[in-house]
Every structure is written in structure tokens, then in C-alpha cells.
Design brief:
12 helices, alpha+beta, single chain
């Protein structure tokens, strides 16, 4: 089973997509014997041995202490050039894990190519940002205490077992979310699930849970599915209009607060509409990458006929025409402005972040106004690769473009 097939296996399992759409809890299974191809103890040991993992990448936690274990495991040192950095003491890491700490390797998809491919498949399928963390523990305590996540999560148990406690409400809901329960305690524990290798959970955003080790080595992944929120939209709207009503002072001793509230209502009713939401979503997705740029050494972004290509940003914004260079278009993507030729812009609009296209497939969508020889598309694609707006996919045999 490849990483792509794992994503397909999870997403196509009976009930998953229905639960995902309804924001409902789901439990399923995949073949546990294949999961070592995704991530394993050997992979984790290799990363710990060959990478300089600092405290912003690897962190340790106890149920009631998220600070002390990290101070004990990481030491402030200077590297060979005298620059301040963190140094992970593996002996202290072992000691703290024996004492019940839980380790978290964050953004593991950036370190393990199989997990990166999995998160990219999930990101493309749902038009969402996705990353993965690896959790490992050996004790018999809670790693983080009772908490909820501000995004949807897919959990894959890779090795060992782990206990997941969920919480109940007075009306009998046994997977309480932040909407049904304010501050759950241990007396509110409802359903308890023990995950074994191959078990997969979908946990909707805001679901209260407590994850507890059971005295044996446990390794699992959490894969996030992150969307823009109403809060993000509201903050963007306020920033767009910051020198209008949001800039106004509220003077408690002088203002008629009822009138201020009325002005706020009128202001928000004016700026909150479908058009502004569409503008926000375009802006939001233009800021984020749908997939990371992959290295292409030793070719250094040179194009071969059997290469395939993805667009890197989810979306981009056309913001104008460059008057100094006739026919050039200005776009905003990934936090920067880029000046593109008409051909580069057309290729970017042709490419997708979901599935790759070959040079021949790009040319097949042409209009009569362009030269679509391999050489002409090659030059534009190489410039887009250099601008980090396009990345190569897997090669496949493709016909040469005439």
C-alpha cells in the first residue's frame, strides 16, 4: 500500500465522508502491516539521529506540565559558528519518556516524504491546509490533559495501544464538543476507546478528549484538516476597513452606547455579504501553499518532456497590469507579488493544485493566440518554477509537443 493508497483507503472507507460532511465522529481501520511504510519507530530514530531537532520542532509534555520537560531535554548552546540554538539531549529524552512524558514531532510531513504525500492528498481532496504530527509515549499518564483541537483531525495508530477518553453531556451526548460542554472534568468521561495498530479516527473540530498512555510503547499520527474560520473572515474585514468605524474610539463617559451599537450593526450589515466573503476566501487561499516545492536536483528546474506539474498555491489574485512591461500581469500568491508574462499567467491558470499536467496536456488546452511548441512552454514553466509558483510532480511518459 503506497501513501496515496492509504489516503484513498481512509477517504473511501464506508461512512467516513458522510461523517466528515456532518462533522461527526468516525472510527475505521486500515491494514496495520502496511503502516511502517508511512512512519515507524525506525523512521523516528533515524530523524532523531540525523536531524538537529530544536524545541520548535520536537516538544515534550506531561499532563500538568508543558514547560519543565522541554527545559530538561533541550539545552541552550551555540553551534560551530557561535550562533545560539537548542541541543536535544537524547539521554534526557529517554529519561523523561520513561517518566511518562509524551513526545510530539511537529510537522512530520516536512521530514518524511510518505507523510508529506498523504497530507498533500488530503489537502487536495478537501481544499484545506493539512499537516501531520507524530506522538510517542511509553508511560501510563495523560500527555496533555483534557483538551480540544481547533481543527478537524484524522488519527492513525501506528504501533502500540493508546486510550482515548471522550466526554458526555447531561443530555447523553458521548462525544461532547465545545458547543455542548464548557469545562469537562474526569467525572464527565463518557466513552473510552483503546486504539490498536491500524485503527483510524476522525475527530471533528472542538471535540473534547484526553489521550492516556497505558504503559507500553505507542506511536500515532494526527493529520490536521484546517479551514478558514468566521473569526479569520471578521479579522480580515476589520483590517480592510480599519480606518473606518473600527478606528473609532468608544468613550464610556461621553458616548451614547446604544447609538454606538446601532452604528456597529449598520456597519457590519454593510460590509458582511457574499461578495466580501468571496474576496476574503480568494485572499486567504492565495496566501497558502497547496503543496510544497520539491527539489529537482541536478536538473535545477530544467524541463523534460515527461515531467508533470502542479500549481503550488491553492489560488492566486490578479491585482493589475504592469504598465512598464506591456502585456505583463501582476498577481499575488504566497505572500508576494509576481510579474508574469501572458503565457506564464495562462499556464498558471491552466495548472491545478489537485492533479498534475504534462507539457502535452498543458498545450492541449491552448488558444490560437500562442505558440505551443515544447520549447515555448518549457521556458515559461522554468520561470514559474523559479518563482516557486509551480512544482514538478511524478514523471510519466508523454508525447512530445510539436
Amino acid at each position: 500500500m503506497t501513501d496515496f493508497n492509504l489516503a484513498k483507503q481512509i477517504l473511501n472507507t464506508d461512512g467516513f465522508l458522510e461523517c466528515y460532511k456532518m462533522k461527526a465522529f468516525w472510527k475505521g481501520r486500515v491494514d496495520p502491516t502496511q503502516l511502517t511504510k508511512l512512519f515507524s519507530w525506525d523512521t523516528l530514530n533515524h530523524l532523531l539521529s540525523t536531524h538537529r531537532l530544536t524545541n520548535d520542532r520536537l516538544r515534550l509534555s506531561l499532563e500538568n506540565d508543558h514547560v519543565t520537560p522541554n527545559k530538561q531535554a533541550f539545552r541552550s548552546v551555540r553551534d560551530a559558528f557561535g550562533r545560539p540554538t537548542d541541543f536535544l539531549s537524547l539521554s534526557d529524552l529517554h529519561r523523561l519518556l520513561r517518566a511518562g512524558a509524551t513526545g510530539v514531532l511537529e510537522a512530520t510531513n516536512e521530514l518524511a516524504s510518505a507523510i508529506e504525500a498523504l497530507t498533500q492528498q488530503i489537502s487536495s481532496r478537501f481544499d484545506a491546509r493539512s499537516t501531520a504530527n507524530a506522538y510517542f509515549s511509553f508511560g501510563s499518564t495523560s500527555g496533555f490533559g483534557v483538551h480540544n483541537d481547533d481543527h478537524d483531525v484524522i488519527v492513525v495508530q501506528l504501533d502500540g495501544r493508546k486510550t482515548w477518553n471522550f466526554f458526555t453531556t447531561s443530555n447523553g451526548l458521548n462525544k461532547a464538543t465545545v458547543y455542548e460542554l464548557d469545562t469537562p472534568t474526569k467525572k464527565d468521561v463518557g466513552e473510552t476507546i483503546i486504539l490498536a495498530p491500524g485503527d483510524v479516527l476522525f475527530i471533528p473540530k472542538g471535540t473534547w478528549h484526553d489521550v492516556i498512555s497505558i504503559g507500553e510503547p505507542s506511536l500515532h499520527l494526527t493529520i490536521s484538516i484546517v479551514y478558514p474560520t468566521i473569526l479569520d473572515f471578521s479579522q480580515w474585514l476589520l483590517d480592510q476597513n480599519r480606518y473606518r468605524l473600527p478606528y473609532r474610539d468608544i468613550r464610556m463617559a461621553e458616548d451614547d452606547l446604544a447609538l454606538v451599537a446601532s452604528d456597529c450593526t449598520a456597519f457590519f450589515s454593510q460590509i458582511v455579504n457574499e461578495e466580501s466573503m468571496v474576496a476574503f476566501l480568494k485572499t486567504y487561499y492565495a496566501r497558502h501553499a497547496a503543496r510544497r516545492i520539491g527539489p529537482s536536483l541536478p536538473s535545477l528546474n530544467r524541463i523534460e518532456p515527461d515531467d508533470t506539474f502542479f500549481r503550488v498555491p491553492f489560488s492566486f489574485l490578479q491585482i493589475g497590469i504592469n504598465e512598464a512591461a506591456l502585456g505583463h500581469i501582476i498577481i499575488r500568491a504566497l505572500g508576494r507579488e509576481h510579474i508574469l508574462t501572458e503565457r506564464e499567467y495562462w499556464i498558471l491558470t491552466t495548472l491545478s493544485h489537485k492533479s498534475p499536467l504534462s507539457v502535452a496536456e498543458i498545450a492541449a488546452t491552448h488558444s490560437e493566440s500562442y505558440d505551443f511548441s515544447f520549447e515555448s512552454i518549457q521556458g515559461a514553466l522554468e520561470k514559474l518554477l523559479d518563482k516557486a509558483l509551480v512544482t514538478k510532480g511524478q514523471r510519466r511518459v508523454a508525447a512530445l509537443v510539436d
